[in-house]
Amino acid sequence: MVKADELYDITVVGAGPVGLYAAYYAGLRECRTKLIETYPQVGGRLISMYPEKEIFDVAGHRRIVAADLIRELTDQAMQYEPAVVLNERVTGLRILGERVIELTTPAGIHYTQTVILTVGCGAFVPRKLDIPNLIDFEGHGIFYFLPSFEPLRGKKVLIVGGGNSAVDWALSLDGIASEVTLCHRMYKWQAHEAMVHRLLSSNVRVKYPYFTLKEVLGEENVTGAVIWNERSGLEETIAVDAIVLSIGMLTNIEPIRAWGLNIVGSGIAVAPDMSTNLPGVYAAGDIVMYPGKVLLITAGSGEAATAVNTAKEYIISEELGR
């Protein structure tokens, strides 16, 4: 038997921006809420990977620094005093029946009537290029994300990639670094059109399409790079102090699949009410997959509200015996 004080109404797994909003909205619906986060602080990837990066696609903000957004979302969520568990990764999920779900972590067991999974992309590692000796320069001028821009002040920086993160980092470093070059191998950009327009109008030296990194130069630290055009074969050697590889993430959601969830592509399949194939288990944010899915914090927040409302109705209906 699970003691009443151990059983929460809603447990949110993942305390990134979507998870924080889910915790807030659960409090607004007067649910007894718990928030479980793998990292030692809330914020998810925004805090662990790019706290100083400006974000331009959050509703109500013309632009906002990632750390400031997390601070505001945390203040919003904590007003309803959810239980917050940090430094714990959920490794198991089991339906016990009678509106009891068991969540297992290396540190213990948590019980809840419903679960909302807001775990971003799941476990992830940066995608790397197959370049000789690249690993030798990691920590010596090779970066995959930028927790702080200050170490690159006055430096010559090469950014590799054409998605939102690569473009945003290039724009953020313009004026901080002494020189910024961005190379992109694709013919089309994966970043928002308005941000690409800003990039092409900035002081950033843009090399595209078909340009990618071929070789890293240096001894103990990065001192240069060879970029080349995959179409023409032309090479160019440039002096750089740092290289930022922003070419995506390799995700692993197999641990989640092991819980019995229906996985479609690289995400959890959900119905329009954000329910999964497991009773009492819902999901929101980058981890969910459905036709028309948009990978935006704002969209994820809407999904979180829908998940909370559905969970609340599930709890009420079960209590009333419907």
Q: Sketch the major β-sheet.
A: 7 strands, mixed
Assign an overall shape. Answer: elongated
Q: Quick check: average pLDDT?
A: 92
- What structural category arises from helix and sheet content? alpha/beta
Flag low-confidence runs: none
Succession of helices and strands = EHEHEEHEEEEEEEHEHEEEEEEHEEEEH
Question: Termini separation (Å)?
Answer: 23 Å
Give the assembly state of these chains: single chain
Strand fraction equals: 25-35%
Radius of gyration, in Å, reads: 22 Å
Estimate percent helicity: 10-25%
Count the E strands. Answer: 22
Number of helices: 7
Structure keywords:
22 strands, 7 helices, 23% helix, seven-stranded mixed beta sheet, alpha/beta, 322 residues, five-stranded parallel beta sheet, elongated
